[in-house]
Amino acid sequence: MILIENKIIDGKALSEKIIRGIRDSLLTRNDLKGLAVVLVGEDPGSTLYVRLKRRACQDCGIPFHQYNFDEKSSEKDIVECLEFLNKDEETAGILIQLPLPDHLNTENILNAMDYRKDIDGFHPHNQANMEKCVYKIAPPLPLGILELIKATGEKIIDKKIVVLCNHKLFGAPFKCFWGENNDVQVVTTEDTSWKELVKDADVLIVSLGIAFFISKDMIKKDSIIIDVGINKLHDGAIVGDVNLDDVVDTVKYISPVPGGVGPMTIAMLLQNLIKLQDEKGS
């Protein structure tokens, strides 16, 4: 299986390899608990992500339970569902599909979930631990990015790593992963030095939600770029925050959109689910 071709890190192929390994490891188990997903409304992106997560669970024989709520549902109704799932012995992990509709208080709803079943690491308890690098599982998205970079075979030591994002909390896991042996900077476009930091980055992780924001004149030659952005153009095309065609001759490796971070996030989510169940049973 070719995981890297023409500088492109194939997240789809890598995720399929990981999911295949998970499926094989579960063949002899009869104690599997399920993943419960709470979906509020009919946002197309959220609906797609939930469908992909369902398919991945089914491929591995993992029970999947979906709890759908109307877009106008009350916070009380959703919290009551979470209270049930917190106590449900057949539920190993809970995923609240974000974003939630504007009238709902996201923090209150995340707080209502048992942090020990939080598959995404979004519960405030788990977020606080992540900032201190004290955690049992890391969020699937940064874990997926970690695996994509591992797939390059590059040694991440004495590197300048820049995470360009909208909220600095997003970058906390990367400081835990690489902070001991590297210079990890988490910046937003509101920081006055972000352009200089991006230009000097050996590893650049971009999560802004702005199509084609990063071009070749903004990056360092032979850098590794992980593109987290998912943007839909007027013609329906899905593209990243990085102009891949523009930068591909400059970078050493880059993850594409689609086919990069997205599939890897789902693979890591399944790994987290199994880990949560095994730790509870140990």
Describe the model:
The protein has helices at 11-26, 44-60, 75-87, 106-112, 124-131, 140-150, 172-178, 194-199, 244-247, 261-281, and strands at residues 4-5, 8-9, 34-40, 64-69, 91-96, 160-165, 183-187, 203-207, 224-227, 231-232, 238-239, 253-254. By secondary structure, it is α/β, with parallel strands linked by helices. A hairpin with a 2-residue loop joins strand 1 and strand 2 (8-9). It is globular, with a radius of gyration of 19 Å. Helix 1 runs parallel beside helix 10 (261-281) and helix 6 (140-150) crosses helix 10. It has ten helices and twelve strands. The strands form four sheets. The protein has a five-stranded parallel β-sheet with strand order 7-6-8-9-12. The protein has two domains: 4-10 and 30-125, Leucine Dehydrogenase, chain A, domain 1 (Rossmann fold); 140-257, NAD(P)-binding Rossmann-like Domain (Rossmann fold, 3-Layer(aba) Sandwich). Helix content is 39%, strand content 17%. The relative contact order is 0.16.
Task: Record keyword descriptors for this entry.
Rossmann fold, 2 domains, alpha/beta, 282 residues
End-to-end separation in angstroms reads 35 Å
What does the main sheet amount to?
Answer: 5 strands, parallel
Strand-residue proportion: 15-25%
Q: What is the correct CATH architecture of the largest domain?
A: 3-Layer(aba) Sandwich
What is the average of the pLDDT values? 93
Low-confidence stretches: none
How much helical structure, as a percent, in the residues? 25-40%
The fold-level CATH name of the largest domain is: Rossmann fold
Strand order of the largest sheet: 7-6-8-9-12
Instruction: Give the number of DSSP strands.
Output: 12
Number of domains: 2
Shape: globular
What Rg, in angstroms, do the CA atoms define? Answer: 19 Å
Structural class, judged by helices and strands? alpha/beta
CATH class of the largest domain: Alpha Beta
